[in-house]
Amino acid sequence: MLIPTRLLRPPRPAVMVAILIGAGGGLLVQAGGVSAESGPSLHAFPDPVIFPREALHHISEPGDGVEIDNFGTAGVSVLGDQISGSTPQDFQIVPLIVGGGIGTCALQVTYLEPGSACDMFVAFRPVSVWSKPESTLVLTPSNLRIPLIGAVPWALRLTSYPQNSTGTPVIVTATANDGSPAGLVVNVFVNGTFKTACQSTCQVSLPATSPAGNTYHVAADVGPAGARPGGKGTAITRRRTVVARVTRPNCTSASCT
Question: Residue 93 and residue 81: Cα distance in Å, rounded?
Fold first, then answer.
């Protein structure tokens, strides 16, 4: 659920009116101190729109919506009809019905007089855990751009591959799909011993020290720094057995090294 925009909205521009007493006892009204911006001036609340962590392919509730306010001194036409950016497929405009009418600036052009507002509703539906959900809601023809940011469940890859033609050392990579918005990091353990921690991608080198090879038990997790796999506070854990073997290089002469 989105944080209600009514709790985040700043006060509207104020108009100061002075009432003066004329020489003949009449009232003279003088307006001044107008803090509204000259011409049309659109503002969105909240901005950016941040969605909580959502399950893959599950659509969120649109929450309290996004309010579009015209703080200027002239009217302007708005139409919320476009989501652009790196992952537009993760967000969608919802034609929500509010109070018996369409409560959004979408679907048709809305003309906002100075001091008026309209609402938009956007839902979040992540389709990939490996693409960071970031896009932009664009209102035309006003060209107001509102960032949309979502979060998906943690995902963690633990892979290994030989670094060179001899097959040793083996490089093990642990990659998480998100940074550390909650103070979490990627931790890597080898044979039960902590090796390294990083924000999103860690690498460790596992050499072979004998012709028969070495067997390593690698575990990685997303959790507090140094947290053991499966321990308190870990969000996800992956385990992998890796064998690093000494492999003679391919050669076509007796002088191979």
Answer: 8
Residues near 130 by beta carbon (within 8 Å), at least 6 away in sequence? 155, 177
147's CB contacts (< 8 A; 6+ apart) are 47, 48, 49, 134, 135, 136, 137
Q: Start-end ranges of CATH 2.60.40.10 in the chain? A: 36-151, 156-244
Task: Answer whether 134's CB lies under 8 Å from 147's CB.
Answer: yes
Q: Give per-residue pLDDT as tens, 128-164.
A: 999 889 999 988 877 889 999 998 888 999 998 887 6
Question: 15-71 pLDDT, tens per residue?
Answer: 333 333 444 444 343 334 445 567 888 899 999 999 988 889 999 887 778 899 999
Q: Are strands 27-32 and 16-21 parallel, antiparallel or unpaired?
A: antiparallel
Classified by CATH at the fold level, domain 36-151 comes out as Immunoglobulin-like (2.60.40)
Q: Report, at the CATH architecture level, how domain 156-244 is classified.
A: Sandwich (2.60)
CB atoms within 10 A of CB 110: 21
Q: Is the peptide bond before 211 cis (omega within 30 degrees of 0)?
A: no
**18 contacts 12 by C-beta, under 8 angstroms:** no
Overall pTM surpassing 0.90 (yes/no): no
- The partner residues of 242 in beta bridges, in order of sequence, read 216
CA distance 41 to 75: 9
